[in-house]
User: Fold this.
Amino acid sequence: MTTQHDRLTALLDVRVREPERVQALAVARPRPAGLVGQTGRLLLVAADHPARGALRAGDRALAMGDRLELLDRLCTVLSRPGVDGVLGTADIVEDLLLLGALDRKVVLGSMNRGGLAGTVFELDDRFTGYTAAGAAARGLQGGKMLLRIDPDDHATVSTLEACAHAVDGLAAHGLMAMIEPFLSHRVDGRVRNLLTPDDVIRSATVAAGLGATSAHTWLKLPVVEDMDRVLSATTLPVVLLGGEVADDQEAQFASWRKALAHPAARGMVVGRSLLYPPDDDVAGAVDATVELMA
Assistant:
């Protein structure tokens, strides 16, 4: 039986002795037939939180800080029917590639992780991850960017400009640009996202207008009240943001089900709610989410 120690040793041996193998596997990886799978929608598991220093899941402050446990949970999610792929930073994507978990999966690279959680520069979301050219060279299907808009923070305009360039760069390679927009502000020094329907509508309309083309742009939006009105604010495909781990998982699933009834809702991107569900039944949480997608 392969132990966690064996898996760690195998990953490290490749990184130490054969780093060129990572790119070779990326080039040779069997690609998915399209962006949506058997449900007709796109279901991705998100795993780009650690690169921004956001490791909490539920009441576990450092849940995502155990990399082998995280990889085990990701492999479980990716193995379940109806899961189309993953959204992550290069370190996690490449670990999954080495573990053989990404064949025919949609893979989106996380592009801007410079706005580290809890820092004074959190809203200065520099592009420190994948570039459009890098994503294309590694056979990814697209890139995702976080866009937090704070009317009181001058860093916002730099992030807007950088996201527009990223949209153009991805479109030039025929890759999806997934934008996750929020209106944000600071409360007692901490960044808080504004989650009223009006605020989400405003952020979505700003994000939709970035770049010289929106042909390859998708939006990633939180599930809030009056979601039908939010989803009617755009003609771009929308994936729903799974959000934080909820104490009441049934209520969370009910809100997702209602939002998915709108024609603009073309899928979901769920991270900690699938990886660290309240009952710790990862496979069960995934299967319940897939059922909503049908």
